[in-house]
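Following up on my earlier thread - several people asked me to post the actual chain instead of describing it. Fair enough. Here it is, all 407 residues.
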Amino acid sequence: MSPLLQFLLALALIILAAKVSGYVSTRMGQPAVLGELVIGLILGPTVLDMFHWNMFASQEGHLGEMFYDLAQLGVLLLMFMAGLEVELRAMRQAGRPAVLSGVLGVVAPVLLGMAALPPFGFTMQQATFMGLVLAATSVSISAQTLMELGVLRSKVGTALLGAAVVDDVLVILLLSLFTALFDESSSAFTVIFVLIRMAVFLLVAVWFGVRWFPRLGLLVDRLPISEGIMAFAIVITLLYAWTAEEVGGMAAITGAFLAGLLFGRTPLRHLIQPKMHTVAYGLLVPIFFVSIGLEANVRAVGLHGIPLTLLIVAVAIVSKVTGCGLGGLLGGLYRLDALRLGVGMISRGEVGLIVATVGLSSGLIGEDTFAIVVVMVLASTLLTPILLRLLYPKTAGLTAAPTAVQP
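Reply from S.P.:
Thanks for posting it. Predicted structure:
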């Protein structure tokens, strides 16, 4: 079989497996990403080791590189979509509980990670990075659960959505700063230089986006170009991703997220969003989530890794409940509502996996630690809706009308 035919067959199998597993997961009341992660683990070295099958063995390394590149494109589009869907007005309306919960929900995991992981052989640098991995959150499953309970429009639901935005923005910026400092010496001059690079990039990128995105978009829309607006958005996303890393010394995903955030403020948003959603979730994003499982080998954890796995899962839960819950209390929520907010922030997802992937590719964490992160994401995603339902009375769904949640 030629390399092209092997690639086409592998691509078809991965996309089909991702969609079928995502469907099964949603039918079981879980987010589609959970099914995609699980099927990736099954197809990967943990169970079936797909790329070592006879039909793919001759091109194993080549296929792995191709799917890695496709997965990285999926990450960029995923972060663009995340930025595009951020509602800055809703975030401002969420007020103090959202901001304080989002900030403390990042600080607590980083501090707990730095305190708990060094006894297990982690350097302070690695422990800090793992704290960033644990700081990332994904509230899609929490939002869906609150919607089913009829309380997504409540104070807790609004604060949850706002806190998630604050959390993700902080994690992405801190990851960029951490990555830049990790690649350079740790002198005071280097720190100042890195901060100046980041500030200059952010200022120029925001200025260019606010001033020129609407004008260039309308100009492109008038030209007789097939899907000109979509091509314009993709080109800008790729250029922002490249510039963020090459010029700003930040992670490429920061540039993609910023591009989405800036496009979200323009009239082009409603033209781009449905079509970009189709491109991203129809092809590249499922490849990214399945590739997480294809790269992770849970068997590498072994019996000796069980204590560390349990510790990381415990830190993931405790840090979010305490950090975000305390932020809710300081923001004026009652104790029970603050606890609900903290529990709603437990689930981890795509941003945490993206951060972990950056660490794996840079050598900050090994394959065994990466596999533990995947287990942590699965455990927190499964646990969150169970705990939320315990914290709300069964009649909660009668108190408010449900609202739609963007997948």
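The CA atoms of residues 38 and 185 lie 39 Å apart. That should answer part of your original question.
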